[in-house]
Structure formats: C-alpha cells, structure tokens
Amino acid sequence: MLQKTTLYLAVGCLLLSGCNSTSEIASDYRSNINVPTHWQKDEQSKPIKIEWLAQFQNPQLHALVSHALQNNHALTQQQLAVESARQQLIISGSALWPTLDLSFDSSKRRTSREGAIASSQSLDLSIKYELDLWGKLSANEQRANLVFMAQQATYLQQQYELVAHVITAWFSVIEANQQQALLVERVALVAQNLDIIESGYQKGLNSALDVYLARSEYNNEQAKVESQHAVQLNTVRELERLVGHYPAGVIAVDADLTLLKSDVSFGLPSELITRKPQLVASWYQLLAKDAELAYAHKQRFPSINLNMGYGFNHDELGQLLSGSALGWSLLAGMTAPIFNAGKLAANEAIAHIELKRTEQNYLNTLQDAFLAVENAITAEDSLQARYQQTRDAADHAQFAQLLSFEQYLKGLSTYTTVLDAQKRSFEAQSNLISIKKQLLTNRVALHVALGGDFQLTHYEEVPHENN
What we know:
It is built from 9 helices and 6 strands; from the N terminus they run αααββααβααββααβ. By secondary structure, it is an alpha+beta fold. α2 (59-71) packs across α4 and α4 packs antiparallel against α7.
C-alpha cells in the first residue's frame, strides 16, 4: 500500500514538473553580446602575454609583491570569504542526501492515584530523505556552487589588483625620492645663488631687492623640501600597509623609474570576457541569480519526504536492546503550499527582479572593463608623446637657467629673470619624473585591465630606456 501511495505521489509531481524550466540565461548568452572585433588602436591584436610582472626586473619589488600576497589583510579577508562559500556549498549539497539521526529517550510518569510510576526507554535510528523530483534542491546546490566560483574569481581579481597596487605604490616611493632629491638639489642651487648675490651686494654690485628675492626663494625651497619629506614618508607607509607591515615609514627603496620599451599585446575584446577574473565573477553571480530564481519558483511545488524509523522501546533499560523490543516504521508524505498570502509568489518575483538587476550589473561591469582598456591604451600613447616633449623641455630649461644666471652676473638681465628660468627648469624636471611614473603605472593598469596574469621571480630580457 505504501509503495502504491509513493508511486501516485511521484506521478503527480512529474505532472506538475511541466513548468519546471525557469532559466532565463541561455547557454550562448555571452557569445551573443555585441563586442567590437578589435580595440580602437590595434586591428590585428596579438595574443596577450600573461607574465607581465617579469618585465620589472627588481628583486625587492618581487619580494614585496610576494609578501603582500601572503600578508595583505584585505586579500586574506576575501580568501576567508571563499572558504565560507565552500562551506555553504557543502550545506546546500547535503540536502540531496538522506539524514541519519540517532535518539535516546527516557521518561517516567505516574499511572495511578496510588503513586505507581511507570518508566519507558527508547532508542531510535531514523532516516529522512526528500525526493528532488524537479530539481529544487539541485537548483539550490547549483546556486551555492556558482556563488563559490564567483568568490574564487573575485579572490583572483583581488590578487591581480593587489599586485598592481604594490607596484604602483613602489613607483610612488621612487617618484617621491626623486622629487625630494631634486628639491634638495634645488635648495643647494638657490643657496649658492644667494651667497653670490649677497657677496655682490656687499661689493655694491647688486641691489637689496635682489638679496631679498634670493632669500625669499631660499626659504620657499626649504619649505618645499619639508613638505616633500612628508609626502615621501606617506608613500612609504602606503607601501608598507599594502604588504602587511606596520606603517612605520622605514622601507628603503633604492631604484630608478626605468621606462619599458616593450610593446603590449592587447588580445581581442571577446577574449576579455572569459579571461578577466572580474568579468568571470560577475558572470557566475548572474548564473547564481538564475539558479536562485529556479529555486524560488520550485518552492511553490509540493515536497515529498520519506521517513524510516528503526528502534527499540522497553520499560526496562536493561531489556532495551532485546529482540522483543524491536520496532520499525516507514512513512511517506507530501506537503504542498496552498495559502501563504502571496509569500512564495513574492519571493519568486523578487528573485526575478534580482536576476534582472544582476544582469544589468554584469553588462555594466563588462562595459567598464572595455572602457578601462580603451582609456589605458589612449593614455599610453598620450603619455609617450608628453614624455618626449617634457624631456626636450627639461633640456632647454636647463640651458636657459644657466644662460640667465650668466647674463645676470654680467648685468644683462634682472634677477627675476633668473628666478623665472630656474623655476621653469625645476618644473620641467619635476614633470619629467611624474610622467615617467605615470607611464609605468599606466602600463600596470593596462595589464590588469586586460586581465593579464603575473609570474613572480621569473625575469625575461626586456629592453629599457635609462634616460
């Protein structure tokens, strides 16, 4: 009789499963996204090189990157999020398996007015199992699995971004050091000029105005040195924070801003969709929402549960495991939601809305990824042109600075002309340092935007530009 009842329940559930398909994300969804055939600059893109970190051949930088990957707190937090998602996947998957429980009960009760007390002991082994006829539990497990894979991809993306942040911070320290050295050199030059002008004033060759201008310039440059020193410490502390150290400002970086002359392989825009971890994570999140919609829809279907009990029951504890105390039971039941004031329908509607929101977020993330690559490519060309112009401007400004002071000593120009020439020379040299740093950091940003991988402690021969 029980087998017939179970069969009837199963047939009824199979009939209800005709509206089982709720997926709104087709398997070819990503292949139908409209993407350009090539980037704006490169019509014949070469395969992307993943080992871009090897271009920066500095052992200290690779050591800092390695240390950051092991000790950065934000990265460790995401790693724990991955492990949490893994445990949630185990929980969701366990619903597809039977549960086995062992229970022991002992009770005493009064049975008559005379005060007689009856005792009872029971030991039961129960097995419970929910039939997943239309994949409700499977949809929930699939959702948890996709969330887990999304967390893994997010963790990988954070690794790439952390490496980029460490390299950028390292370049910022080098830039700050070079700007500080330039300011110290500038102070020494202004001090030398001040000595010459004061000596000339005592000989009646210069005016008091020139002396005051020279002294003012000296004080201003000293103030800039102190200000840059604070910037220098801040950049070092930022680097220390990224690698997991206390921000004491004690890491010493002795390196130069060496420009890379190697070309970048951009790959194809269509490859970015499946290569970049950020886009992979966003895609898994979209699929997870699709599975969540399926689960919410199937929550409105009946649930079939099988229960089997096997146990012992006796008044005496010593006789509990005797054969005469043995008993078993087998039950099959179905529960179906009839009235819940629209709760399940609202949950399905919410899941559908969240799926649409996640879809728009995926498409927005995709467009942002394309934008980041295009902007980085444009910035690469712009910075290269600016670097050439600024390098020429710095050379011309240095000649103008020397010439203006020589003319001043000969009485052919005023000291304000000298100050103006010196400021132009200093600004050009300072800008040259900044643009070199921008070129390097933009190259890093471009590699991350392209979804490129990295490799530690492996160096390849890459031509460099030393000036």
